[in-house]
Design goal:
heterodimer, A: mainly alpha, B: about 230 residues, 8 helices
Chain lengths: ~220, ~230
């Protein structure tokens, strides 16, 4: 089985499990008392944000590894991860406002998390645009590795720069020092959705990596 | 270390000398800065928005644009007659090359910002004189980090298509943290509030400078190696 086929299978499994997430979220998870059905989007929004962050972290890591050992596979992986991360950021940035309008009364606010994720999206876009404008493969790999590392270092600073502003965004409910303050069934759906989005991330990245592989062979 | 700085100085001196002899780039950048300030004057309703409220934004948006247009110059200069290849072949370390380019850019941007600051005070009648020393400090802190990343990126974009467009697209996200802190500090200064109110912002500006000057210095060889 080729890599692309394997990626397709992982993606298909991920998509099938995504249907289970929808089913669980809509039919087997209680409706939240204050937010009503709007809260359901949380099972998509938060895991998408997780996948986007994971993608950026791995772009940064692959960039460092590329500059250290100059193996083109790291560059190909970083490119794949950035493209998939862009897609997940877009899911996060569209589901967020859809939820925010009925709950906050506004589509957008410049709070720390929102700004951070918007810039995550901008860095992904800049990264992909840069890749598109460099013709030489070696040069492209080095340039994008430099940008990937700088982007990863920038994100904590963006967070710090807006952290002190007032926030509307819900505080962490799972990853916090005390126990998760979420009913068991909601927590189970959320954690399951995290796993599904990770599988989807892997499936997409494997397929994209395989395409990059073929492209480089075609170039040679 | 002494050798590193001596080589960096040689690079910076070369750039500044070239600039000083022609003076076209600095004049264009200064005129551009003046024009941005003029645009700002007509882009607001002075009866609706008090000048002091919008002053930090005017100053920092102007400086961001001025920084952006001056950055393209540093390496575009070296593209003519393959001057960059010559520099890379010379027995100068890549770190010195970067630090020299950074120093020259900083002097250049500082000159443009000085002109911009005086025009800003003149056009908008902002009381900068009592807080001039502190204001210059804030401007210096914010400029260093931003130009450090900009110098690194300008060495990359010269070999891409649409270089003039790529630089702002890549660089503007990196401008946001220094901009946020600098605007807060400038706002406090211009409103005659004590600087102790914004020590948090100043510390973060300094941290940003240290992190990005170091990071850019170490990443620079990866950008120019053949």
């Amino acid at each position: 089985m080729t890599l692309a086929q394997r990626g397709r299978w992982v993606t298909l499994i991920g998509l099938a499990l995504l249907a289970v997430v929808y089913l669980r979220a809509l039919a087997y998870t209680p409706v939240e008392l204050h937010q009503g059905p709007a809260q359901k989007i949380f099972y998509i929004h938060v895991p998408a944000a997780w996948s986007a962050m994971l993608a950026m972290g791995l772009v940064g890591l692959a960039s460092i590894l590329y500059l250290l050992v100059k193996d083109p596979r790291y560059d190909r992986f970083a490119a794949a991860s950035a493209e998939v991360g862009t897609a997940f950021s877009l899911v996060m940035l569209t589901t967020g406002p859809i939820w925010a309008k009925p709950i906050w009364g506004t589509w957008w606010t410049w709070d720390a998390r929102l700004t951070l994720t918007l810039f995550l999206f901008f860095i992904f876009l800049g990264y992909l645009l840069l890749r598109g404008t460099v013709g030489d493969a070696g040069l492209r790999a080095r340039y994008s590795a430099v940008l990937g590392i700088c982007g990863l270092v920038l994100l904590p600073f963006i967070h710090l720069s807006v952290y002190l502003f007032r926030t509307l965004h819900p505080q962490p409910i799972v990853l916090k020092p005390s126990a998760p303050s979420l009913p068991g069934s909601m927590l189970a759906t959320l954690l399951f959705s995290f796993a599904v989005f990770t599988v989807l991330y892997l499936g997409f990245v494997i397929q994209r990596y395989a395409i990059g592989d073929g492209r480089d062979v075609g170039d040679a | 270390m002494a050798e590193l700085l001596r080589q960096a100085w040689a690079i910076a001196r070369k750039d500044l000398l070239l600039e000083f002899r022609s003076r076209t780039a600095i004049m264009s950048a200064a005129v551009f800065t003046a024009l941005v300030l003029v645009v700002f004057n007509f882009g607001r309703d002075p009866t609706a928005v008090p000048t002091l409220t919008i002053a930090p934004s005017i100053l920092w948006v102007t400086f961001s644009f001025a920084g952006m247009v001056t950055l393209n110059r540093a390496f575009a200069l070296e593209l003519e007659n393959q001057a960059l290849e010559g520099l890379l072949l010379s027995p100068i370390s890549r770190y010195s090359l970067y630090l020299g380019k950074l120093a020259a850019n900083l002097v250049f941007v500082a000159a443009v910002e000085t002109i911009g600051l005086f025009l800003f005070a003149l056009f908008f009648d902002v009381p900068i004189w009592d807080v001039l020393a502190a204001l210059v400090g804030v401007i210096a802190l914010a400029t260093v980090g931003f130009i450090a990343v900009g110098t690194l990126f300008s060495a990359m974009v010269i070999r891409t298509r649409f270089a003039e467009l790529m630089l702002p697209v890549l660089l503007l996200p990196f401008l946001i943290p220094p901009l946020v802190w600098a605007v807060q500090a400038t706002g406090a200064l211009l409103a005659a509030r004590p600087l102790s109110e914004v020590t948090g912002s100043l510390k973060l500006l300094a941290a940003y400078d240290i992190v990005f000057v170091t990071l850019a210095t170490f990443l620079f060889p990866a950008v120019v190696e053949q």
